[in-house]
Amino acid sequence: MFWTVHFVGSLRRPYLSMKTVLIIGATGQVGQEMLQMALQHPEISRVVAPSRRPLPSHAKLENPVVNFDTLPEDAPWWKADFALCTLGTTLRQAKSRVAFYRVDHDYVLTMARLTHQAGTPTFGLVSSLGANPRSRLFYLRVKGEIERDLAALGFTSLVIARPSLLIGGPRSSARTLEAVGLFLGEHLAALLPRRYRAVSTHNVARALFVDALRSPAGFHLIESEKLSD
């Protein structure tokens, strides 16, 4: 764990440099894990989690209720020590490629731009294994495009996690193909290369949170093989 230590006067007593984290997508599977980690972490004094619907209250939590189509550009809470984004949808939920792109690319890029303009130096994103802006697969192409566009914003530190299929709690809607993939990923894991094994939402949240908290300078990828148990 990384600590920033300061000394006060002649007593030379150390204390922690407390930080503010902005979490985008705190109602999703990975986002919920990340929110709990941030609220319980001793180095985090304030957690800002904008969402469409109110979250359970907590002494550390600031929860602006927002419309992602009309975000407040001048809100003071865009400025944080680091920001983490787990926002995302599915084609089934979005109902069209246009709507999917708006959530997984446009919303994410808009919020990243606002955090960067406010002076937030570090941004972390949950992307996907195989993300590539030149991919023939629409999903992976969108993920690749948002990675590329985030890198162009110029954050001091940009951390991106690229998990394979996620193992977490129950989904809000049926996703048959993903369920089949998860079954194979869990039961045939020993036969699969580590890179393609399903990973837990907890591992993804923890890896991205820890790396972003450390804020390493430059562009850092956390590939899926580093997220599996």
Q: Could you write a compact summary of the structure shown?
A:
The chain has 229 residues and is α/β, with parallel strands linked by helices. The protein has helices at 29-40, 91-94, 97-118, 138-151, 176-187, 201-214, and strands at 5-8, 13-16, 19-24, 44-48, 61-62, 82-85, 122-126, 157-162, 166-167, 199-200, 218-223.
What does the model show?
- It is a single chain.
- The chain has 229 residues and is of the alpha/beta class.
- It has helices at 29-40, 91-94, 97-118, 138-151, 176-187, 201-214, and strands spanning 5-8, 13-16, 19-24, 44-48, 61-62, 82-85, 122-126, 157-162, 166-167, 199-200, 218-223.
- The chain has one domain: NAD(P)-binding Rossmann-like Domain (Rossmann fold, 3-Layer(aba) Sandwich).
- It contains six helices and eleven strands.
- A seven-stranded parallel sheet has the order 5-4-3-6-7-8-11, with helices on both faces.
- Helix 5 (176-187) links the parallel strand 9 and strand 10.
- The longest helix has 22 residues, at 97-118.
- The protein starts with a strand and ends in a 6-residue tail after the last strand.
Describe the structure using short key phrases.
229 residues; 6 helices; seven-stranded parallel β-sheet; 20% strand; Rossmann fold; two-stranded antiparallel sheet; alpha/beta
Tell me the CATH topology: Rossmann fold
Contiguous helical run count? 6
Helix-residue proportion: 25-40%
Low-confidence stretches: 1-15, 170-182
Q: Superfamily at the CATH H level?
A: NAD(P)-binding Rossmann-like Domain
What CATH architecture label applies?
Answer: 3-Layer(aba) Sandwich
- CATH class category name: Alpha Beta
> What is Rg?
18 Å
Alpha-carbon distance between the two ends: 19 Å
Q: Write down how many β-strands occur, each being a DSSP E stretch of 2 or more residues.
A: 11
Number of domains: 1
- Listing every helix as H and every strand as E from the N terminus to the C terminus, the arrangement reads EEEHEEEHHEHEEHEHE
The proportion of strand residues reads 15-25%
Shape: globular
Average pLDDT metric: 87
